[in-house]
Amino acid sequence: MKTWLEIFLVSLRLGLTSFGGPVAHLGYFKEEYVNRRKWLTEKQYVDLVALCQFLPGPASSQVGMGIGLARGGITGSLISFIGFTTPSILLLMAAAVGFQQQGLIDLGIIDGLKIVAVAIVAHALLGMGKNLAPDNQRASIAVLGFALVLLVPAVWIQVLVIVTAGLIGWWIYRNKELPKAESLPLTLSIKFSAVCLSLFGGLLAILPALRALTDSLHIQLADSFYRAGALVFGGGHVVLPLLEREVVPTGLISESDFLAGYGAAQAVPGPLFTFASYLGMVIDGAPGAITATVAIFTPAFLLLLGVLPLWLKIQQAPGMRAAAAGINAAVVGILAAALYSPVFTSAVGNGADLAFAAVLFMLLVYWKRPAWLIVILGIIGGLLFYGV
C-alpha cells in the first residue's frame, strides 16, 4: 500500500507539471524516476523507452505505465497511469463545459513552460548520449537516426529507424562481448501476456461488429477511440486527425468545438491523448468522457502488458543484446530530433528565449536543482517576460 501511494503521488506531481509533449515527458520521467529516485537504471529506462517508441499508442504514457508495473505490479501500473493523466483529464473536461485555457496562454505561462521543456529534454539527452552512444559506431547510428527523422517527416520513419538500427547493431556487435541486459523486476507470465495480446486483437475486431449491430452511442465512441489508440504511431499529434475523421464528419462534434478543444489540449500538462476526454465530454457529458478516455488508453495498456514480458525475455539473447545496442543509440537520435522539432522550434524564437533556456539548463545540470523548481522558475519567467 505504501508503494502504491508513493507511485500515485509521484506520478500525480508529474501529471501536474509535465508540460511540453511526449518528449518532454520522457525527460521529466528520467529526471524523477532514474536520476532522483533510482527506481530504474538508465539502461532499463532506455530499453523501456525504445519498446514504447516501437509500439502504437501514447509512448510517454506507456513508459509511465511500465515504470509503475515494475515498481508495483499491475496495480502500480494502473495507479501510475491514473496519477499522470488525471490532471489533464479533469482540465479538459472542464474546458468542454466552458473553462477557457486561452487565459493561461495570454499570461505567458505556456511560453515559459515551453522553455522549461527545452532544458529538461536537453538534460535527459546529455546523459543518455554519454551512456548509450559511447563509441564511434553508436554515435554514428544516433546521428543518422537524428538526420533521417528530421529529413523524412513521416510517422513510419521512427519505426524504420529503430528496426534498421537494430539490424546494424546486430551486424556490428554480434561477435563482441556486451553487458547483459538489465531486466525489469516483473512477475507477469507469458500466458498472461498472450491473454492481453488476444484481448487487444479481439477488441479491435469485436467493437466494429458491435457498432454495426447497435445504435448505442457508447459502443460507437468505444469503437472509434479504441481504434484510434490501437493503430496510431507517433503520439498525440498524430492521433488528432484520426479522431477528427471519427467525430466531425459523423456530426458528433462541430469542427469549431474540435479545434477549440485542440487548443485547450496544448495548454494543459500530461498526454495529448486525454483530448479524448474533452471530445467525450462535449458529445455526452461525463459518461462520454469516461468511455472515450478508457477506450483510447486501453490498447496502450494491453499492448504493454502483452509485449513487455516477451521483450524482456528476448533481449537476454546475445544477438538481441547486440541489436539493442543499435536500437538504444537510435532512440537517442530520435529524441534529439524531437528536441529540435517540435520542442526547440516551438519554444525558442529569439536570443532571449535561448538565454532563458540556457540558464534553466545550467541550474538543472550544474547546480543540480530539482525539476520541480525549474518548472516554477519557468512559470515565473513566463509571467515576467512573455505575459501581455
UniProtKB/TrEMBL annotation:
It comes from the Bacteria. The keyword Disulfide bond does not apply. Pfam families: Chromate_transp (PF02417). Its main location: membrane. GO terms for cellular component: plasma membrane. It is found in: Cell membrane. One of its GO terms (molecular function) is chromate transmembrane transporter activity. It is a multi-pass membrane protein. The keyword Coiled coil does not apply. The chain crosses the membrane at residues 7-28, 77-99, 105-127, 139-172, 192-213, 289-311, 323-341, 371-387. InterPro entries: Chr_Tranpt_l_chain, Chromate_transpt. Keywords: Cell membrane, Membrane, Transmembrane, Transmembrane helix. Belongs to the chromate ion transporter (CHR) (TC 2.A.51) family. This is Chromate efflux transporter. It comes from Alkalicoccus halolimnae.
